[in-house]
């Protein structure tokens, strides 16, 4: 019996896709950047089926590419072009297993779409705070594999901090039941944290217990004009000092970003009569007291203007206006796509050094591609910038494409010098795997390689992602 | 040259202790429960010295027992009695390396005492929230090795969630520089989290970057009489709903605890005229607005009384009264010591199931040691109970001591049945290592053993702690 037949016997013939047209959405990433092929796309319906599928793949020595909503920005879930991989799509496993409003936890299948988990929490009067652009398509399993971030990390943390327990199937098909709903458990090594952020290279996450929070009933949102990134950092300190944990989002964008949004997004409207050098979207939330929250935000911003940290600020008068502010922020990615090819970087540096980093990066960009325009925005409170660079208007697409590798190398060398990360929240995937030797120490790569070999001795799981292939030959430590 | 001479050459003769009287505080745990001996106690003064010491121990094949403030409640830092171990005391490494009030981070040597880190943060107008009984003696390295919890976990998380970066010396003496001050970094496996909570069995933590928070300038503290644990859980939900992230502590204690404190702690005074069945200490904090905070707490508690979740409540009128409330909570451990030998358990279960657990545990205790008195207190919001059991008044110390192993087994079997943890915050150490096979799955033990072998192939680091010795022979997976 062939592996495909065996897999069909486990999940049913209808859930093993071998035809090219059926496979297409599973083997091409959504940016259209990576196109692969697969022996089969397998869609198990339960954890037990995942165990059986992985045991069969283990016996056959087959490569396995775990996949959730397939929304990775770094090709993390797309197979290579060899046509040998089994793509394991978790999307049929989409049950909310349990909501516990007393313990403030939700237990879900890994294939649940993030927005559905948010909605299930809301219906129970709770908040699941992870929030990001792809929330309508990405799945919890993918969020875990990539340790997703998004716009609420400042207050609630990344996916790692939002997770209590995991259920994972190992490469040999054995089940690790770590699905515990405990806030505290100091009884051994942090297996959970090893799987979170491992990008499907150590096994397949099939379920998770996640934290819930009280649903905030009050929000206050402001759009603030700031003269510089330094001033924005000063504003961040001031808002934090005055508003504490109420601060939920602090999103920075430069005039170049706003200008792009105005030009490319039909319904975008800026709140200021003149374009500021940069702007920040500030959002506070609280259990209750919307009026008091608005006053607190307004008072803080008045003082920030007085201190020269801001030039102008508009506090949203209603939900419609707040959504319009968010549209300015969220429209940037879309506007960037329409504005043409950009070199993209998802970097983090220590918060206090962001302004110095941006200044140095600008010089490096100008040297690598004269006239190229940095489009800088991101989650300032997390030290995370989406550092994009648009083609110089005078340069051809080809000339810019030729300059991008050097430009990216220069930006990332700077990130390493600032003790930052070349992947703050998007993951390494295929996109950055070649850069790992430049940004990790040899010891870190050795440890990662040894851990990989421990869980997946044949390196069959999601090959070509996260771990540079050269590591594969490394023996365990010593 | 002997190992001791070699070590003296690295750290200086004065920092290698070989005389029994000098070694005494390093080889006897502070509860006086574990008494060991050592080849030498070595006190390095820098990370470089730690590297050299561990390289020398590696060449000599010597056992190494890393040690911080030596305040473990589970014998986690005490060597065995063989006299062969090198105890590596980090307490000379006590520099605050850097405070960054913009990035809200503090970088410290692992040997810094927790209270000193709290104080350094305070002086910079910031809060380092970890807070626990031993804070005047325990060190950051020990807090990391044990993933310390304490009274502020509800709001700020355990040590794991308070840590950004680590500096670790591996068993072979190589340095892993993971000392990054990044809020987001998705570029590889979570080495940091593997070391946190590993109880010195994978290497030696020498430095850390920790998170700081805005210092709360307003506090409100109340002592609340509740009829049952169920009611306390209802009160927890209500306070959370109404006060959100302002809720900093929610400490539960039964009448037996309060009665012990009144009898054994000289300055303890309860706020109620009649002893309630149980009580909760609730603390809120906020950036500012103490009056509003007090009113919010009072309003919530009035409604809680109305809903039958509380019978009476006193909101502290000033800092003195708040400290008196805390004295009631913090006096319990001391009162327990004075009341005689108790069987101690540091357990966690899912928050919503705490009441059911306590009921079942009470029955198991009564069966194992009729007349024994459960002394139950803990961090209710974390699902963490310090489940102590006092000797029955009618039983001799010997008879009770004989009954304790069965009693503990019964309590812990129940914990496992509730999918809880037999060590919520104290760590496994020597105290619970024999119980690991009963509370972890064979697969978990296999993975832990394989991880241990990967980092420490000869199992030389902190032997006899955390990992049951039987695992030592296990090969890596497959």
UniProtKB/TrEMBL annotation, chains A, B:
Q: Which InterPro entries match?
A: FAD-bd_oxidored_4_C, FAD-bd_PCMH, FAD-bd_PCMH-like_sf, FAD-bd_PCMH_sub1, FAD-bd_PCMH_sub2, FAD-linked_Oxase-like_C, FAD-oxidored/transferase_4, Oxid_FAD_bind_N
> What PROSITE patterns does its record include?
FAD_PCMH
- What keywords were assigned to this record? FAD, Flavoprotein
Give one GO biological process term.
respiratory electron transport chain
One GO MF term on file is: FAD binding
Instruction: Please report the stretch or stretches of sequence annotated as the FAD-binding PCMH-type domain.
Output: 34-215
Family to which the UniProt record says this protein belongs: Belongs to the FAD-binding oxidoreductase/transferase type 4 family.
Concerning PANTHER family, the annotation shows: BLL6224 PROTEIN, D-2-HYDROXYGLUTARATE DEHYDROGENASE, MITOCHONDRIAL
Protein name per Swiss-Prot or TrEMBL: FAD/FMN-containing dehydrogenase
